[in-house]
Design brief:
- The chain is an alpha+beta fold.
- Among the domains are: 4-101, Pleckstrin-homology domain (PH domain)/Phosphotyrosine-binding domain (PTB) (PH-domain like, Roll), CATH 2.30.29.30; 132-308, no CATH class; 569-659, no CATH class.
- It is built from 35 helices and seven strands.
- Strands 4-3-2-1-7-6-5 form a seven-stranded antiparallel β-sheet.
- α11 (257-276) packs antiparallel against α12, α23 runs parallel beside α26 and α26 (552-567) packs parallel to α29.
- The N and C termini lie far apart (109 Å).
- Residues 763-778 have a biased composition (Acidic residues).
- Residues 644-671 form a coiled coil.
- Residues 144-649 form the Serine/threonine-protein phosphatase 4 regulatory subunit 3-like central domain.
Length: 789
Amino acid sequence: MSDTRRRVKVYTLNEDRQWDDRGTGHVSSTFVERLKGISLLVRAESDGSLLLESKISPNTAYQKQQDTLIVWSEADNYDLALSFQEKAGCDEIWEKICQVQGKDPALDITQDPIDESEEDHFEEIPETTHLVELPPCELARLEEIADLVTSVLSSPIRREKLALALMSEGYIKKLLGLFRVCEDLDNREGLHHLYEIVRGVLFLNKAALFEVMFSDDCIMDVVGCLEYDPALVQPKRHREFLTKTAKFKEVIPITDSELRQKIHQTYRVQYIQDIILPTPSVFEENFLSTLTSFIFFNKVEIVSMLQEDEKFLTEVFAQLTDEATEESKRRELVNFVKEFCAFSQTLQPQNRDAFYKTLANLGILPALEIVMGMDDLQVRAAAIDIFSYLVEFSPSMVREFVMQEPQQTEDDVLLINVVIKQMICDSDPELGGAVQLMGLLRTLIDPENMLASTNKTEKTEFLSFFYKYCMHVLTAPLLANTAHDKNSKDHPEGSAKINPVCPDNFQTAQLLALILELLTFCVEHHTYHIKTYIMNKDLLRRVLVLMNSKHTFLALCALRFMRRIIGLKDEYYNRYIIKGNLFEPVINALLDNGTRYNLLNSAIIELFEFIKVEDIKSLIAHIVDNFYKALESIEYVQTFKGLKGRYEQEKDRQSQKLNRYRRDARSMDEDEELWFNDDDDDEDGEAVERRMDDDFSDSYEKFMEAKKGAANGANGANNGKSAAIPPASPAVTSSNSSSSSVKTVALPATPVVKTALVGLVDYPDDEDEEEEDEEEEEQSPRKRPRLSS
């Protein structure tokens, strides 16, 4: 129980006078040794960290508002607030603050703010004097009361004392009773005084007075008093607007009377601040800060109460998507959800996150998909506004939903395609809705806001989904208005009859410009997917048809698309452009533009200047080879001469490179000659070997003749046999020594074995062929036939 009672939200007031939520926790009041005093401590309910540590200073003015708020200032321009979940907890902490400061807990403020002008004589005012004396609440004293209220506004102390006096005597209700009397009597002078009184009471900036003035039985009389501005000849009719024109519609009956009263009150107070009260001057800008806080906390409370009522919101979305719901009822439901989302903008990020998750769980996105496709323009416009709130808050939530659609639905109706079709079919001549939707689409397909996602594959998965299911819907108007190719695979027969020049319809031209802007964004941010799509659909050729449009802004959009592609310096794109001869429509547009010095002229020249400066060689060669004759007459810029110069430089460089290659080839021939010389040495070794073999044969023949002569002179076979053995030994020795000497001579000629493997033979006409090789670039083909011989 104590946890709930002490549960609070900590707020700080920022420079824009808006309350920032610092977190939710539990408050306690304890003595802190370091601060040497009783202090307010708030520890976060999530992790126990310290959200607030504030010593209760005896001189700080604490203010209790709306039974559950305690507000104070700790330093110049640093205001703090504790918003309690329960009134009991607020009263408990308020009593502790009053106890430390020695004040009565019945008061709504513990100190009188002191400004420098009154600091000196503050001690002269008795501490027990809490009230200023108010004149009796009578018609005759209205002027006196008005003067009193106006006079205290410059003094913070007197403002506080006047507020206490007004509260203690029930003075506000008495004044409003006089208003009714004056109005019945048509007492204009009294009504003018009452205007000054009520306006001054609002400027007292006291929440306790607002609680009385903005209650159900008082607020319309307060508005009535503010109608009679003395500066106006005739009074305004604010009450008539609030009661008759502005109708409160309960799209679904609100059973909670407190919630209904809070909605009424917030609307009327907002009307008073925005419409009735004049814009405060520099000196009055802080007079209504409490009024701003009053509205802010009311809105937070309304959103929280609606969000917690699941039956109410479930019924809202059920009726919104029910086909049987009447159009007028559906319009009211959509407007309610839109207003609900607008209120949520006052929430802090963590609360807003919970709010949108609640809407997502209730089926806000499927409901929008149905509502956006309806014929009612007001319903569609409100649905687009709701969709923009969702996309701006969490693009990932929307992407997650649309990627699951193909698996969950049988039909081809996808939320993003519905959005694209709404953009294409916008009936507004200025395409206001289409521009808004184009911005939302760009947010959804922007990889930059996918990087922080917890799902690391979100970028790849979503882009694959988008190009598979949605890109053809986005480009359909573009392809339809540029179809002129009979063999186009994107259109049926008969599309060739469409004029290749973009229609003169300004609205169509604007739509195509929006589509091109999105496609250009894709070229910059989706490298792989858009490249594949452009190549497959020959998209750049179709886009460049729009260079013929009479709407210069559309021709510039087409040119910008090509410029982004070339800016990537991707050779795949460059080859695609060269193969398709896609510079032709650009150059025709430049030539057709003539001597007019306009944006189109400058943009086209900048395109060619970029190619020249970045030295994109393939494109330079293509442009000069195919279009230089048409461009050489343009001399007011040096771009095209520069392109020609780059082209000539590259040509010279290539020529020098080719010559260097040829010289290298000849030097290789010289190396080969040296190799052949080595082969000649090997052949000399072979000649020595043959000569030694011949000598051995001669010696052997002489030896055999001597042997035969000896045999003829012998008397027995045995002697001949024994005589034959000794010569055999020298013969073997001779053979061994001979082979040894041959091996020694032939050792350096080991490569002979290699040359024998490839059949290298010295032909008589080799020298002539070698001379011819000096003159020709390639010599190896002539030698190859010899490799197999």
